Amino acid sequence: MNYSNLFLMKRYTDKEVSWFRDMQIEMFSSQKHLYPGIIEIVRELSLKFKLIILSNKPKRCIDGIFSKANIYQYFCEIIGRDSGYAIKPSPEAIEYIISKYQIREDQVLFFGDSRSDAEHVKVLASHLLIVGTDL
Predict the structure, then answer these.
(1) Model pTM score
(2) Which of 67, 89, 90, 94 registers the highest number of CB atoms within 10 A of its CB?
């Protein structure tokens, strides 16, 4: 018997799925940390620029990290995969940001750390700075 398919054979209740997602978010949030010096950098950038988080992670994951670091006040908005927009590399969320905050695509500086971030920027006419990358 192929045990890797065993997980797929069981029907899970909404309560079980919700519990699993909550545990996954808790584990993610507790294991993640901000890069050293990032709070100071974000504070300085927020004085001159509109800072917005756009992540393929659920917003609750970001909330877990941000609540520990106490840095919400530096961001205009936080958008996660559960915020109602198509995930990166779809341009849907960034188009919403550009429209809402009345900025031009060439004024966007996108900080990324993954392959999907690089793909996202290819769709747009914005600039990219990759940090801590898996590329």
Answers:
(1) 0.68
(2) 94
